[in-house]
Amino acid sequence: MNTQKRLQLPWQALTKRTTGIGSQGTSSLPWHLLTGLILIALAYGLWYSTSLMSYEWRWNRVPQYFAYEAQDSQRAAGYARVEAIEKQGTNARVTLVGDEGAKQVLLVAHDSLQVSQGDDVSEGDVVGVTRHWAAGPLFWGLWTTLWISVLSGALGLMIGLFTGLCRLSKNPTLRDLSTVYVELVRGTPLLVQIFIFYFFIGTVLNLSREFAGVAALALFTGAYVGEIIRAGVQSIARGQNEAARSLGLTAGQSMRHVILPQALKRVLPPLAGQFISLVKDTSLVSVIAITELTKSGREAITTSFSTFEIWFCVAALYLLINLPLSQIANRLERRLAQSD
Questions:
Q1: Looking at CB atoms within 10 Å, which of 3, 15, 111, 278 has the fewest?
Q2: Could you tell me which of 306, 237, 225 has the C-alpha nearest to residue 270?
Q3: 249: closest CA among 257, 260, 239?
Q4: In Å, how far from its chain's centre is CA 255?
Q5: Does an H or E element contain 171, and which?
Q6: Domain residue ranges of the chain, discontinuous segments joined by +
Q7: pLDDT per residue over 133-142, tens digit each?
């Protein structure tokens, strides 16, 4: 007994010392300062690199690719005479009267008027323009990336769940087919799969490019999710299934109510990583002319010549999507861990 106590004393002392250090709270300020210095050094390195290329930053050109003030020309429907022009705030109400007395009323921006009262206009002549705010290409590219990611992710999760259970099935046919699917998809590049879906399967079945892109991403994600689900289910002790069966549950009920809930807690981090990767993989559907975020960025570069600015904005938008996903997954993981 005394020997046991003597052996425990050093460990107890070490625990007390460690606890004391933790309770006092070691200052992490120097490490935060070091992090800030590293980030500043990286920013300086980027600035210095662009200065060597004599690159001129043009951030003022970027906002118009998120939202811009569009102009719609208002034209005369036929030969007519400008009967009256009434100012209404920043707009002007123009009344045109044709030869047969037909009237056409146009509301245009006052500073865009191309006619005066008493002028004659012909069919197609521009009277003025109306202005309104419209979403830019980067905004629409972001929206396309979002809905493709959500739809293909939901389909991929369902496909992966079914595939993972088939991989564990006692039926040799289901097990073999699911294995072939997983190995075939994981062993070939996603880009090649998108081409096959669009140019071969899409042509034969007359599918749209959006359908082909979502289907390719869903099947690609499903193969990886299937392996994640399979590994998660196999990580649960067999005694859990045996205990559930001993309580009178069927094999399906045991899997649905006992095994899968525990497995999903364990596979949540890799599942979150897979869906974050899916958001970035959507950039590949641009090869079949789907204007998602990356393709929108390339198109914006061709008109703005602001290469670095646009790519930094595109990267920030992908980060804007993925950071909340990561935070939600971490919070959900902590909550599930507390429920054990």
A1: 3
A2: 225
A3: 257
A4: 32
A5: none
A6: 70-135, 137-338
A7: 888 999 999 9
102: alpha, beta or left? (left if phi > 0; alpha if psi -120 to 50):
beta
Give the span between the Cα atoms of 283 and 279, in whole angstroms: 8
Helix locations, 235-306, DSSP H: 238-246, 251-254, 260-281, 293-304
pLDDT in tens, 15-64: 444 444 444 446 788 888 999 999 999 988 888 887 787 777 888 888 88
CB-CB neighbours of 254 under 10 Å: 20
- Check: pTM over 0.90? Answer yes or no: no
In the prediction, which pLDDT does 14 show?
Answer: 39
CA atoms within 13 A on the CB side of 242: 3
Compute how many other C-beta atoms are within 10 angstroms of the C-beta atom of residue 279: 20
For the cut 90, the answer to whether the pLDDT of residue 162 exceeds it is yes
CATH number belonging to the domain at 70-135, selected among 3.40.30, 2.40.50, 1.10.530, 2.60.120:
2.40.50
Tokens of 199: 């140019």
The count of residues in the chain is 340
Amino acid identity of residue 66, one-letter, is F
What residues does 73 pair with on adjacent strands?
Answer: 129
pLDDT exceeds cutoff 60 at 8:
no
